[in-house]
# Entry
Amino acid sequence: MSFTVQQAMKTLKRNDRFRAAGRKAEQYLLNGIEACFDLRYNITTRWSDLTPAFADDEGYGPVSYPGLKYIHKRVGIAPREVLVDIGCGQGRAICVFSREPAVERCIGIEYHSSHAEAARRNAKRVRGRTAPITVIEGDAAEQTYDGTTLIFLFNPFGEATMRRTVERIGVSLLKDPRPIRVVYVNPKYEHVLAEQPWLTKTDAFEIPNRVHRSLPTSVWHSAN
# Structure
């Protein structure tokens, strides 16, 4: 019996190693795919580890290219869309969507100076861009959001900053009533959106992602 248990444990450990090796190989493959897309768009949007810049900084990681494609297909782009990516990182999403003819302009908001600068470089280099790109370095909770029609977030910060940012978006709508949509990837604090009387959740789905096999995503529409 003792020998059987030992053999079972060895087999389990081997399987764990096989699984770990498989995950590592899968990650290398995904990295290669992401690098190919970067090359296609003539940009560089690698994952990177950053020291949190503020109390509820949730870290950095771009949505995968297949994830962005799925969002585009599912959510769609309205004519003369003004897209804002809150926590744009190195600018992958704004670069991709700037190639869409219906997009009037793209705006990225990024707190980390190194990523904001990288986003600006990518905005100048992206192949096939048809819409202008502006990258703002600063606090998302201090922006005006004037004219914005589509807001994109990949869980960039915690509840406190989320509340302040949503409040600023609400103020913008009071000044200039218009329909807006919010696409929230990995919606950890979507209860903040649910509390807003001017927002309604209209869709929920999962997108393919680089590290996790999928990420939950929710879509919200304004009442205007």
Notes: The mean pLDDT is 87. The chain has two domains: 1-41, 65-222. The first strand starts at residue 81 and ends at 86. The chain has six helices and seven strands.
